[in-house]
Amino acid sequence: MTTPLSPFSRRAFLLTAGTAVALPLLPAVTAQAADPIRTYSLKAAPGPVRLAPEPFPETILWTFNGTSPGPEIRVRQGEKVRIVVENALPDDTSVHWHGLRIPNAMDGVAHLTQPPIPPGGRFVYEFTPPDAGTFWYHPHVHSVLQTNMGLYGPLIVEEKDPIAVDRELTWVLGDWRLGPDGLVRDNFASQRDYLRAGRFGNTVTLSGQVAGSQTFRAGERVRIRLLNACDARVFALRFHEHHPKIIALDGQPVEPFTPPGGQIVLGPAQRADIILDLDRKPGESFPIIDSYYPQAPYELVTLKYSDEKPLRSAPPNTPIKLPANPVPKPDLSNPVHLEAVLEGGDMGSLEKAMVHGIQKTKVEMMAAGKMWAINGVASFHNHMDPMFTVPRGRTAVLTFRNRTVWPHPMHIHGHSFMVLEHDGNSIQKGCTVDTVLLGGGETAKVAFVADNPGDWMLHCHILGHADSGMMTVIRVA
């Protein structure tokens, strides 16, 4: 049994894939310097992308400006930006600027903050990012289909006073479910995926390519911006014989620290900025291992040292702490208390929930494509009434209770929040982030100042979980 995610059929999807190579592609993101507002253009369209080296075929993806991940957009903290999005897809779309605290009308959630962008249509986003950091963009229409087809990219907001490094890299972690023909398998509405941990790919990529090695010079200090753009995969990265220091999580600065065991855990949508001092010898190589799923560890990429003379004999002593962003600090003296109980899925206890205002049994929910709920309500993208209302300017303390056996990276739009409590082994505790990863049975308590008015989406960032009910709205008024 499957549930439709898109208004077009399997045949139309395959025909689109087969003819996509003939579509014209725009060049990389373009900034129009003559405009006093920094302006970029993004075109969403099908196109061929080489994920793996020959003799593997190219893969037909849905791309921004002909690439997946889409081009890196770089803007300045506190400077206004305009991004013109064209839709050349056979489906409605939108663009959400994940993690940015921007006006509600620019948040990019179709049916909630804007109408969807129809095929052949365009939408102009304008906003001024208040925070520096590592963010990203992706659709909020038929998210399982569109994101798994490749529609996402990094958005970097540069600090006014950046820290000193020799090099900066953005590593976008992705995975793909590919068939032997090189095409993305079109089983986007698999009930098995929806009921369990989400849609996993069989091919992992680093910034759009099956990774081999990355070459560095001994003595370099490198800033790496890690971004997990996967639908469902959680990463636990170990840098063999290296000791990365985390300097930001979800774009928000933290006191620099080395994570426990040197392992960096990133759930879907989460980001980490790290400082890596390349302090080994020329000619040496070291693996970066993803071991989150102990039954299937693998080498993500190899750190390869060139044969050049070391850049320096010891790591530099320049500061690596980032300047703070202007995120308001929660006032915990008299907060508004909220609770989100997460239920559903395979091996769960959810037997009934409200769907479109009508209570339905588990069997009836599954017939409607709903397998998950928040506080006993399973929502739709195009029908989300606010579950919570917080007066503007008040601090909200939100407790997440995961009563399922599956992980849920919970994300709040338009706000960053402080993780007050987390009974898992979370490196986020005490940090300000926009997505918190709850393991099965875990509880987390977060706090944020509701200073951004509007209706804001709250959802699990395992996209099949969200599309099948684990989403709702927080109203700030």
What does this 3D model show about the protein?
With 477 residues, the chain is mainly beta. It folds into three domains: 10-160, Cupredoxins -  blue copper proteins (Immunoglobulin-like, Sandwich); 168-305, Immunoglobulin-like, CATH 2.60.40.420; 336-476, Immunoglobulin-like. It is built from five helices and 33 strands. Strands 10-9-12-17-14-15 form a six-stranded mixed β-sheet, with no helix packed on it. It has a six-stranded mixed β-sheet with strand order 23-20-26-31-28-29, with no helix packed on it. It has a five-stranded mixed β-sheet with strand order 11-19-18-13-16, with no helix packed on it. A hairpin with a 2-residue loop joins strand 14 (245-249) and strand 15 (252-257). The longest helix is centred in the N-terminal third of the chain and has 10 residues, at 10-19. The two termini are 41 Å apart. Mean pLDDT is 91; it is low at 1-33.
Summarize this structure as a short list of keywords or feature phrases.
single chain, mainly beta, Immunoglobulin-like, six-stranded mixed β-sheet, globular, disordered N terminus
* Biggest sheet character: 6 strands, mixed
Note the beta-strand portion: 35-45%
Overall geometry: globular
User: How many domains comprise the coordinates?
Assistant: 3
Summed up, the helix count is: 5
Oligomeric state:
single chain
Relative helix content: under 10%
Q: Strand arrangement, largest sheet?
A: 10-9-12-17-14-15
Q: What Rg is obtained from the alpha carbons, in whole angstroms?
A: 22 Å
Structural class: mainly beta
The CATH class assignment of the largest domain is Mainly Beta
CATH topology of the largest domain: Immunoglobulin-like
Number of strands: 33
What would CATH call the homologous superfamily of the largest domain?
Answer: Cupredoxins -  blue copper proteins
Provide mean pLDDT, rounded: 91
Distance between the termini: 41 Å
Low-confidence stretches: 1-33
Proper CATH architecture of the largest domain: Sandwich
